[in-house]
Design goal:
Two copies of one chain form a homodimer. Chain A has nine helices and 15 strands. The first copy, chain A, is an alpha/beta fold. In chain A, strands 1, 2, 3, 4, 5, 6 and 15 form a seven-stranded mixed β-sheet that branches. Chain A has a six-stranded mixed β-sheet with strand order 7-8-9-10-13-14, covered by helices on one side. A two-stranded antiparallel sheet of chain A has the order 11-12. In chain A, strand 11 and strand 12 form a beta hairpin. The first copy, chain A, starts with a strand and ends in a 13-residue tail after the last helix. Chains A and B meet through strand 6, strand 7, helix 5, helix 6 and helix 7 of A and strand 6, strand 7, helix 5, helix 6 and helix 7 of B.
């Protein structure tokens, strides 16, 4: 029974362009308070949970971009969230824009932290798979300038002992790639916390728009099953800065089943009672020690992109 | 239009314990003839398509096992299939038990070949992910002795230029692992042919039996989307040797959608008109050259099984 707990996706509706940090932090604290009423131990907030998703806009000047970044975590403005969490004895995952360093050496990452039930940061992750463009292209109908505004995460895919198990973090586009989940599972991850900001529609690939929800879910469902892990995936939802976001925060079981899901596009707490030991049947089924064949997987690290067939095998 | 073609899953009902090769080959040829009537260029037959799935039985003596193996491909008994394919100008994927070598040096693999429209073998694959046990365990309700009867495939995951595109092969349990698809995609695979023999029920993990079809499909659907590839997956179906098999042969589009599916559990041709160029939108979306981060994936080849967290990252 020590491995049973109630976790939550703390979905956020849109954050307004002039909505100050203290107002956003108050919304997060309200979700923590609701989580306390529902006996949660952990609330997963979205990617970039303190600000609008500004990489949809071209912002030429770094000083104008920097108002979206946190130079300290916690800061005077975010400390009340940590204090509330400690007072309520609830942990959280928080996505935000991280700036570190000074002067010409400032580095900027799309980051998440894992905070335990006494308000202490127990882990940090910096997004590895930054989608979009590294340079502004005025011909695009939808800007996505993450690769311009952030550096690649430099912490790998770390796993932390927390919440009575092993916990990994991913951010948004990471969820579409099979490799991050596997790297987490090879470190024993039982629970993956993941925040995202995904548009409901893509103007440049309209043929895929009917499948946006399916493409959001199916890689996570496969990964949960293939790695025997719980996934709590939390959206920023609703219409933010003119962009409709898909919402659909959810909890996915190690079976791959979606077992809880948001019903709206505003601030909403999606709770689910989970058993970390439910990961075991799937981890046993796949039994990596017996059945994985890493020597046959070398191309996954030896190649970045598509190349010619390695060999024609034996015929 | 050169990249449009009609492909088929050539599903087989059960093969009887005393059903001789010529009888089975006649069933395969009947499916090829039906495929010709439906203008197919390629028929994917199941794993171990010439025999019952004998690894469910404990067979102590190698000489008794060897009646399930092909020492030549084609042999006098299987050559009529190759001749029919050439006469009809249809290619095929065929799964079978392969024995190579002589005397004490015979090696045995769970193998598939890809045969082109003139009856020539253009590629061979030997199953990498052999499930089950390497030794007989009389306490198990369901035997699965593939790891006893076969060696690990030694050809990697090869990709072949064929059928106006790049084609890879997988066999049965391979489909549950994300790595094989990725290794194929990194060689440009656009179409994956896959035969399988999967029980509809697992007596030792009954809690998962309601999810058998979902677990069959979801890794393939995720992989098709994540790698931008078509998958033709073909079952041996029905009750064979006392075991109910799941059937459900299908074609999966690069969108991840199941676009064709068997309706029965007997010999059945499932056809689908596919466009290999439909892979491009997904390959472009994931754009491996720009977005993959192999340096962060190293654990996938550096570790076989689960180990401790690599590092706690920066906190």
């Amino acid at each position: 029974m020590a491995r049973m707990q109630t976790v939550a996706a703390g979905q956020l509706g849109p954050i307004g362009p002039d909505e100050a940090r203290p107002r956003v932090v108050a919304r997060l604290i309200a979700l923590l308070e609701e989580a306390k009423r529902r006996s949660c131990t952990l609330v997963v907030f979205p990617e970039m949970a303190l600000t609008p998703f500004f990489p949809r806009r071209w912002i030429p000047r770094q000083t104008d971009r920097d108002r979206y970044f946190e130079f300290d975590m916690p800061s005077p403005e975010t400390r009340p969230l940590f204090e509330a969490a400690a007072a309520l004895n609830i942990g959280f995952y928080l996505g935000y824009c991280e700036a570190v360093g000074e002067g010409q050496d400032i580095r900027r990452y799309n980051t998440s932290v894992l905070v335990d039930g006494v308000g202490r940061i127990v882990g940090k992750y910096r997004k590895v798979h930054l989608p979009g463009n590294a340079e502004y292209d005025p011909t695009l109908k939808l800007q996505h300038l993450e690769a311009c505004y952030f550096e690649d995460g430099d912490l790998g895919f770390p796993v932390f002992e927390a919440f009575a198990g092993r916990v990994g973090m991913l951010i948004c586009n990471d969820r579409r790639w099979p490799e991050p989940y596997r790297v987490l599972a090879l470190q024993g991850a039982e629970l993956v916390c993941l925040g995202y900001n995904s548009p409901a529609f893509l103007p440049d690939t309209p043929e895929q728009n009917g499948l946006r929800t399916f493409h959001h879910l199916v890689p996570m469902q496969a990964a949960a099953y293939q790695n025997g892990m719980w996934i709590v995936a939390t959206a920023k939802a609703g219409r933010e800065d003119g962009c409709d976001m898909m919402g659909q925060s959810c909890v996915i079981a190690p079976s791959g089943e979606v077992v809880a899901r948001a019903t709206g596009v505003g601030d909403e707490l999606v709770t689910c009672r989970i058993d970390l030991d439910a990961t075991k049947a799937y981890k046993r089924f796949f039994d990596f020690d017996t059945y994985r064949r890493p020597q046959a997987y070398r191309l996954i690290v030896d190649r970045q992109g598509v190349g010619p067939p390695l060999s024609r095998g034996e015929t």
